[in-house]
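Translate sequence into structure tokens.
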Amino acid sequence: MKLKGAQVLQILLCFQPFTVSTRTYGTSGTLVDFTDPKVQGHLDALVRMAQSCVIKVRATPKDVRAYFTNSSPVSRSGQCFAACMLEQSDVINHGKVNRELLIHLASLVNGKSSRVVRKLTSISRLCLDSIEGLSDRCQLASTYNDCLNENMIEFAFPLDLAEEAVRKMPFHLIQANLPQEIRSLQY
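Result follows.
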């Protein structure tokens, strides 16, 4: 299932998923009002997308925490979690990065002329070099995501909100005694 509007915040790597309190966060001159219904809708959909990816790739709390704190994955399932998130958003499709969609999604929340979008426009192009020659879908997505994170560090998401997202993940559904129909969803 594609959640085309939901991935905006995940794509930016600076606004990751969850329902939050009435706080407004500012990063490097960019204010994001997480109580705004438009932003909250994207956040809620992003959480659902992440929950689906946790089940599909059997991601661990460490995998999800790394993703939502803009850290490199610590395992293969962490790499595949990044791939799942970027593929569900259509930013990566059949091993190809859709920079135009990435930038468009960022502009929906931040505005077309925002600092986030201006920097993402140049960094996303630079990060294409980091994945040249990679064919493994999980490694490709993870490497691209890592490049974006490393180069957009000033827009990183607050740790407490990332932890809140991790707490909402359905890790209990990936235990060894899962029914076959759920296990078959794995990558």
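Note: Residues 91 and 98 are 5 Å apart (CA to CA).
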